[in-house]
Hints:
The chain has a 6-stranded parallel sheet with strand order 2-1-3-4-5-6, sandwiched between helices. The protein has a 5-stranded mixed β-barrel with strand order 18-19-20-22-21. It has a 3-stranded parallel sheet with strand order 7-10-13. The protein is globular, with a radius of gyration of 23 Å. The chain is α/β, with parallel strands linked by helices. It has helices at residues 13-30, 53-72, 82-88, 91-95, 111-121, 135-138, 166-169, 178-190, 218-226, 246-254, 271-276, 283-296, 315-328, 355-379; strands spanning 4-9, 33-34, 43-48, 77-81, 101-103, 125-127, 148-152, 154-155, 174-175, 195-199, 207-209, 215-217, 233-237, 261-263, 301-303, 305-308, 334-337, 384-392, 399-403, 409-413, 421-429, 435-437. The relative contact order is 0.08. Helices cover 36% and strands 21% of the residues. FE3-S4 cluster is lined by residues 157, 159-161, 164, 166-167, 201-202, 240. S-adenosyl-L-homocysteine (SAH) binds at residues 51-52, 157, 163-164, 166, 201-202, 238, 265, 267, 305, 307, 336, 338-339, 341.
Amino acid sequence: MSNKYYIKTFGCQMNEYDSEKIGGVLSKNIQLTETSAPEDADLIILNTCSIREKAEVKVFSDLGRFRELKEKNPALRIAVGGCVASQEGENIIKRAPYVDLVFGPQSLHRVSELLSKRESSGKPQIDISFPEIEKFDYLPIINKNHVSASVSIMEGCSKYCSFCVVPFTRGEEISRPLEGILNEIVRLTFNGVCEITLLGQNVNAYRGEMSNGDIADFALLLEYVAEIKEIKRIRFTTSHPNEMSDSLINCFSSIDKLAKTIHLPIQSGSDRVLSAMKRNYTTLEYRSIIRKIRKICPEISLTSDFIIGFPNETDKEFESTIKLMKDLEFDYSFSFLYSPRPGTPASYIDDNIPNKIKQQRLEKLQSLNMLQGKAYTELMQGTNQRVLFDHFSKKNKNILLGKTDNNRIVETNANSGLLNKFVNVKIAHANSKNLQIEPITS
Length: 442
Ligand code: SAH
Ligand code: F3S
């Protein structure tokens, strides 16, 4: 036994966070250490994603590779966690009988327990239950060796958009109590963390219990986090248009530490499609939210998610999405081809749009988005930006890199003494991939 685990993470930031926690449980409870080489591991974990079909297919092709390792080393244990595990449950063992553990996003704190049950029973173990918010009571705080960290503030989603598996794989929306979140952030600051990203499927739907029994909303949580002196920049992802309260919008002017960027998925620019997606807002309502945010914070960068090729989306409907993207001048956004997900209402709709057309639409939208993102970058030339310099360039160790509020990479000289510091800089050139700054004099 080398007492090592290897973990591969697919999908979103929530999964990245969960993977860190799985590692924490394994090192705390059974003293395993991480390896980046699967062939050196006693335990291989795939923390999976099922948001789109492509993500799922990758999991099964990886499992095939790890099966060969197990044939050579029968003591190797293979675990599948995350959303594919949650969705497929025992089907995973049926399809890949060499898998030893299957656990969902809400039962990951039990991974070491499941492993010992696997040894004592000699049988594969499956736990894809949703035991309330218990998980957070059992998860160790990870000693980050990085200045930027993420903290999950809630689990699951109760919005049930017609195309989405998240409510089924991660369960209903449930918020962590306020104090637990603040404690975790304060503990992270002891290790030098100064930038925090608050994570959740709909962070702005946060309703967490406070120690006096009151309920804090997301705006209040932000105010509390901003009170933590060592935290210098706060980010959050993702938010839902229907939960953009005025008090949250006001935070963009009242909380200086809040990064001036917001990711607000719209999905489509057509009201008919939005209604079929069960998003529960119209394009007019979305536009009016953006107007409000920009009034409070004119320099905010706005990013979004778009789904192209929702069943029976017409050319005209697609063109309204293009128009909306132009009108609202989004920064670099994410766009995906619609992928029917098992069990979701949209997957039962007969679709008459050929894949080729969908692909063309996606390309058109993505090239418009690239142009808009670039234009946004160019506009940053000459502006002052707040940057956290946190790592050296892999290609050139003489270059130190950092990020602006809107996630543009800024470079400076490695000897500038700016590592792990927040600095206000003036952007000198903004025409290449990275932004260059004017020399810092003070
Ligand atoms: N609340 C989260 C949603 C997570 S899913 C958020 O707002 O980010 C992230 C994105 O994946 C969604 O916004 C949507 O654009 C995309 N997505 C979800 N289900 C999809 C599907 N079935 N096909 C294609 N894209 C999908
Ligand atoms: Fe999915 Fe809609 Fe929730 S996209 S995560 S069901 S807000």
